[in-house]
Amino acid sequence: MLTDAQLQATLENLIDDNSGQPYGAVWNVVADDNRVHVTLMLGYPAQKQQAQLEDKIKELLDDSRNLVLDIDFQVKSHATQGNIAGLKGVKNIIAVASGKGGVGKSTTTVNLALAMAKEGARVGILDADIYGPSQGMLLGFAEGTRPQVREDKFFVPPTAFGVQVMSMAFLTTKDTPVAWRGPMVTGALMQILTQTDWDNLDYLFIDMPPGTGDIQLTLAQKVPVAGSVIVTTPQDIALLDARRGIEMFNKVKIPVLGVVENMSTHICSNCGHHEAIFGDEGGASLAKEYDVNVLGKLPLSLAIREQSDAGRPIVVNAPESDTASIYQSIARKLGATLASQQNEQTAMPIIGMSDD
Question: For residue 300, is it within any domain?
Fold first, then answer.
């Protein structure tokens, strides 16, 4: 039998599938003649990985004693662009963006947030698509849902599946278009962000509108964002616009934590055949170009669309499905990537206009 010190050293060299790096000194080992009790302390949530990690440790240690594994985590607040003050009740803000519409960004945002909650984190979603809010429908909120108000100035966000949600959809009706110019839109975004009573969130996911316009620049200048995720499809036109999104985040010093390739392959509902109808490995080439990770590749699946339209996202409606497992893996990799970011404060660039 291995000694406690030998067990510790072996586990420290075990590769974390979520970061691609050795776990390091995040283990606590207490062993006796009958069992090995291992506690893993992470900087990101990974509770859904319990069974998989237990099997991996048993194979690695090859020890006849019973293994008891506890996975614990502590999410810290990470550095943001410039010296922007943090948002009350929120440790980390993550922007989920795309260069163009129609790539499944909102569906990815809601399932990613729900997956992170299933891993054990406290999670919220801000629907920043003021003109076309969709999170209310995706999460199954009834028409006419309105946030409660505290002290006549703070919105209390409604919750769905344990996730706190705030959206322009809660302040308008589906038949009322938001016919506003840019300053009104950005003002509304800042109001619902800062006047929402977020309750002790580890992660707040912001579902961004497509493009690189007013809302994106307001976010970069006034909101403390810890990192961003780019959602794209493999086709060339989507990659072109996703590239612009990455360039924008780079210019405003917001780290791009990774790329999610959506609609990677089409899965036939009759025979299960996989076909890359939008192209192959487009997200991987984009990630390689900018030296970021591919967090995951999601299929073009009828089930995802049907369950999203019904207000029952696939992560909660079919948690044992292959697609839900992909979302869980993406959530863990995202958390691990953010946890590994160096907490270095950077100066905000000055964004101006020119005739060039």
Answer: yes
**What are residue 3's phi and psi, to 5 degrees?**
-75, 170
- What total of structural domains would you count in the chain? 2
- Shared domain for 63 and 134, answered yes or no, is no
How far apart CA 339 and CA 174 sit, in angstroms, is 38
Residue at which a domain ends, from 73, 102, 121: 73
* Least trusted range by pLDDT, from 221-230, 267-276, 316-325, 342-351: 342-351
Same domain, 102 and 131: yes
Q: What own/partner pairs with CB < 8 Å and gap ≥ 24 does 322-330 have?
A: 323/298, 323/299, 324/111, 324/115, 326/296, 326/297, 326/298, 327/111, 327/112, 327/114, 327/115, 327/296, 327/298, 328/48, 328/115, 328/118, 328/119, 329/18, 329/296, 330/112, 330/115, 330/260, 330/295, 330/296
Domain with 58 in it: 4-73
Do residues 69 and 96 share a domain? no
- Indicate which CATH number applies to the domain containing 11: 3.30.300.130
Tell me the per-residue pLDDT of 182-209, one tens digit each, with 9 for 90 and over: 677 788 888 888 899 999 999 999 998 8
Q: 179 in the Ramachandran plot: left (φ > 0), alpha (ψ -120 to 50) or beta?
A: beta
Alpha carbon distances (Å) from 224 to 20, 197, 227, 246: 27, 16, 9, 17
